[in-house]
Structure formats: structure tokens, C-alpha cells
Specification:
GTP binding; elongated; 6-stranded mixed sheet; Rossmann fold; Spo0b-associated Gtp-binding Protein, Chain: A; alpha/beta; 5-stranded mixed sheet
């Protein structure tokens, strides 16, 4: 047999802080943030025996600990940026309360609710796995469940052990480093080169009020607008800031906004009729879409040449139409400023939209759920001795009362049942070796009964 006891207790290093990433200070539009979350620890169960006048040898009555608080993300439709996370990047839920005497269970901690806007994608920073995609009002996601409360000593009483001096500490909370990414949700995305007239188009067909001026990169943040075609047809449009060559690598306003197009189903591609080569501009934008995400290049597009109200553009209409026709591209001519032919463009986009197959909630975005590896463990030799890691065994160590012999013996049985003891013998762990488990340093002994 083998024996374990605590030698030294030392704290885990505190959590690091991660500040939210601000893409542009102007208007403080924040669409990405790195944060740290930690659910609450479960309350400790206690060792206690009933005490009452005239009652000898009262039975065990140590109460269980309460549950630790969960970390829960909830959609709030009234917010539209991740601005909050620029000022706060660490979220820690409350711990459950310790159990009491007379079998009183400790109070469970409330969940820590973190509100995020629609379209927030939550990713595990360490694994890169997509954990959840909050795409509709009412969506919620428990990122880290709170720790279970430890059991009091009544749970360990039996016919052979009527006065157990054994209880559990509360289960530690779970910690994660998460990446939050906001992707605007719209039916139709408006794309094109800088200064192609996207903001003017959005302003003309909706009540949105984007910044409009005659110079590139006027739009520094995506804008949303709602276009009402009739009582039954309402479109949500997103004006995506202008793209340039190399946008997929981050040049210009680049990949910071390309991801917003991923949410849209149909694209209105505006081409600047005053450009020296409209066809080249059209090809360049489509190249950037495909390089960023091959599926973006497959989205249906309604292509429109803008600014036909300008005399020099009106003179080139036939030449522009001929160049696009050679490539088999259907073309439309509009003026966002003069509001010419805008309704026709919207109806064509609506037609493309209804022709697309319905997207179920399950297929809107793949959710990767890696298989649980809680029971897995790893043993490594270090300069300090041995390091034993694994979700389940580290949690069991944290929940053990090392000052009670019976609790230590129970931990030993856990090692046996998980196959860890055999693995340690095979690895060469010997009498007096130090073994680190979580934040506990233990000493291996061959003399279990002493």
C-alpha cells in the first residue's frame, strides 16, 4: 500500500488580465475582446457531530457546501458592441457558502451574467474551438459551470463507520480564456472599393445615418440599416467598410471587417463608375473575399455601377456594360446620390435571398465540442520531483481535507480506481519522492498504515 500526506501548500499564481482589443478609437467600435472567466468554487462540506443536552454521541450532522456561481453569457439585443470588455477583462463568479451544523446546506452562489450583443462568437483561446455562437435573442451559454459543493460527513457514515471524520471541500471553479468576436447579422451586405458609394446607398434606402464624404475610408465601422420594400418584405443591410488589395491580410481596414460579410447571405456589390477601371475594381474585391474565406466568393451578388448621375460616368455606360458582359456579369446602373434605380436593386437582392435554401439553427455555424478528457492524466518528471496533471485528479486533490486521515485514504482509493497508482509505480515513483498535483505538494510513502 502507499500513503499520501500534504507537505507544503502553495497558491496558484493569480489570473492575468487581458484588455479588450479596440479596433478604432473613433466612435469606440469594439468587435473583438480577449477575456478571462472563472466560475465560483463550491462551498466546503464540514465535519461536525450533533451536540445537544442529554444526548451522548450525537451523530454526524455536517452540512454540504453550496454550489459555486456559473459564468453565463446572455444576448442583450440593446447593445451592439463589445465596448464593455475594453474596460473589464476578468470575470469571477462568487463561491458557494460553507455547510453548517445540523445538516444545513450552504447557500449556492448566483450565476454571473455577462451580456453580449447579437452575433457574438465565443472561442476558447487555448484550443481554438468554437464554443458557442449567440445569433438570436434569448440565446445563452454556460461557459463555466460553478463548482459542486463538498459533502458533509453524514454522507460518509455507514454501519462500520458511524462517526466519520471525513468531508469534502468544494469543487474548484473552472477557468477559461475566451475570445469574443462580434459579427454583424444582416440579410444583405453592401461591399465595394473605398468611396464606391456604399454609405450613400445605405442612407438612401434605409433610415441609417452613416458618415458620408467624398474621400476613401469615410466609414470606419460597419453600419446596419433596415429597408422596407412592402408590408411583407423587410431587409436588414450592412454597409461594410471599403476593402483594398491585401485586405485579407489586414491591409487597410481589411480583415477586421471581412468577417462581418460572413453573416450575410447575399451581397450587393457597388462599383464606382468614376473609377479608371471598374472591372478591375470588381475583380479585386472578389479576389479578396475568396482569399479571406472561399465561401464568401460563392455568395450571390447583385452588381451595380454607381454614380451614373455624373456626366463622365454616363458617357462611359456602354463601354462599362460591354466589358462586364464579356465576363458574363449581369450589370445594373444606379445613382445612390440621385436615388435612381435603388428599389430595383433591393428587389433583385430579395429575389436572390428567397432562392437560397433555408438555414437551420444547427447548420448556421458548426459548433465544435471536443470530447471530454476529464479522466485523462499525465505524469511527468521535473526538477522538483513529479508533476501529475489531469482535470479529474486535480479537482479531487483540491476537494480533499488533507488534515483528516480518512480523507487522505479516500484520495488514495481515487488514485487506485483511475489507474494512476499503477502508472506511477511503472514510471518509477519511489519512497520520499515529491509529487505535485494542482497546487498541492505531496510525498510518496511505502508505509501506508503508519
Amino acid at each position: 500500500m502507499f500513503k499520501w500526506w500534504v507537505r507544503i501548500y502553495f497558491p496558484i499564481s493569480t489570473y492575468r488580465f487581458y484588455s479588450g482589443h479596440v479596433l478604432y478609437n473613433k466612435r469606440m467600435f469594439v468587435d473583438e475582446a480577449d477575456i478571462e472567466v472563472k466560475s465560483g468554487k463550491g462551498g466546503d462540506g464540514i465535519v461536525h457531530f450533533h451536540k445537544e443536552k442529554y444526548v451522548n454521541r450525537g451523530g454526524p450532522d455536517g452540512g454540504d457546501g453550496g454550489w459555486g456561481g456559473d459564468i453565463v453569457f446572455v444576448v442583450n439585443p440593446h447593445i451592439n458592441t463589445l465596448e464593455t470588455f475594453r474596460h473589464r477583462s476578468l470575470f469571477v463568479a462568487e463561491d458557494g457558502k460553507r455547510g453548517g451544523v445540523n445538516d444545513q446546506t450552504g447557500k449556492s452562489a448566483p450565476a454571473l451574467i455577462i451580456e453580449v450583443p447579437l452575433g457574438t462568437l465565443i472561442t476558447d483561446q487555448e484550443s481554438g474551438d468554437v464554443l458557442f455562437d449567440l445569433v438570436k435573442e434569448g440565446d445563452s451559454f454556460v461557459a463555466c459551470p460553478g463548482g459542486r459543493g463538498g459533502r458533509g460527513n453524514p454522507h460518509f457514515a455507514n454501519a462500520h463507520r458511524q462517526a466519520p471524520r471525513i468531508a469534502e471541500k468544494g469543487e474548484p471553479g473552472q477557468g477559461k480564456r475566451l475570445h469574443l468576436e462580434l459579427k454583424l447579422i444582416a440579410d444583405i451586405g453592401i461591399i465595394g472599393m473605398p468611396n464606391a458609394g456604399k454609405s450613400s446607398f445605405l442612407a438612401a434606402v434605409t433610415n441609417a445615418k452613416p458618415k458620408i464624404a467624398d474621400y476613401p475610408f469615410t466609414t470606419l465601422v460597419p453600419n446596419l440599416g433596415v429597408a422596407v420594400l412592402n408590408d411583407n418584405v423587410v431587409l436588414v443591410l450592412a454597409d461594410i467598410p471599403g476593402l483594398i488589395e491585401g485586405a485579407h491580410t489586414g491591409l487597410g481596414l481589411g480583415d477586421a471587417f471581412l468577417k462581418h460579410i460572413q453573416r450575410t447571405r447575399v451581397l450587393i456589390h457597388l462599383v464606382d463608375g468614376a473609377s479608371a477601371d471598374p472591372l478591375a475594381d470588381y475583380a479585386q474585391i472578389n479576389t479578396e473575399l475568396s482569399l479571406f474565406d472561399p465561401e464568401l466568393g460563392q455568395k450571390p451578388q447583385v452588381v451595380a455601377i454607381n454614380k451614373i448621375d455624373m456626366p463622365d460616368v454616363a458617357e462611359r455606360v456602354d463601354a462599362i456594360a460591354a466589358s462586364f458582359k464579356e465576363k458574363g456579369i449581369a450589370l445594373n446602373f444606379i445613382s445612390a446620390l440621385a436615388r435612381q434605380n435603388l428599389t430595383d436593386i433591393l428587389w433583385k437582392a430579395q429575389h436572390e435571398l428567397v432562392e437560397l435554401p433555408e438555414i437551420s439553427e444547427e447548420s448556421s455555424l458548426p459548433i465544435y465540442r471536443p470530447e471530454s478528457r476529464e479522466a485523462a492524466f499525465e505524469l511527468k518528471r521535473t526538477t522538483e520531483g513529479w508533476r501529475l496533471t489531469g482535470g479529474a485528479i486535480e479537482r479531487a486533490a483540491a476537494m480533499t481535507y488533507w488534515e483528516y486521515f480518512e480523507s487522505v485514504r479516500r484520495f488514495h482509493r481515487i488514485l487506485e480506481s483511475m489507474g494512476i497508482e499503477d502508472a506511477m509505480q511503472e514510471a518509477g515513483v519511489r519512497e520520499g519522492d515529491r509529487v505535485l498535483i494542482g497546487k498541492h505538494e505531496l510525498v510518496w510513502s511505502d508505509n501506508w498504515e503508519d
